[in-house]
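Let's study a protein:

___
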Amino acid sequence: MNCPNCLFGDSKVIDSRPWDDGDAIRRRRECPNCGHRFSTIERVEGLVAKVIKKDSTIQEFDKNKLLSGLKTACSKRPVTKGQMLAICNEVEKLILKQRNQEMDSKTIGEIVMKRLKTIDKVSYVRFASVYKDFTAPDAFAEWVEGMAKEI
């Protein structure tokens, strides 16, 4: 592993430990040339989660894209970054458990909404307002009224 500080072509592993619930290994490294310490994360290669979009195209699952949507929905709400990352990781693991490592975006949205509903109702409604793609304020108001009766 090249040192990110001096670009020396070798590094020494100081510590290794399971990471991301055992799906990866975090290695702490040190450069023998400059002494710089850095971390790397090692995962099994070849497992790629894929999303089937509404138009039937298939894309690689982008955890950062989902996290960005969650950050928007949870803005100024009592939802921690750790909770949002946990949702993203859960979705990715569920996709990878599928036989062909693919899941449609509708199912992903439902999973995220289910998790948000238990964490923060306002964030849940915000996420749903974008995910469900309401075309009229009346349709959104009707959905909110129905959801409020469930709670």
Summary: The chain has a mean pLDDT of 90. The two ends are 52 Å apart (CA to CA). DSSP finds five helices and six strands in the chain.
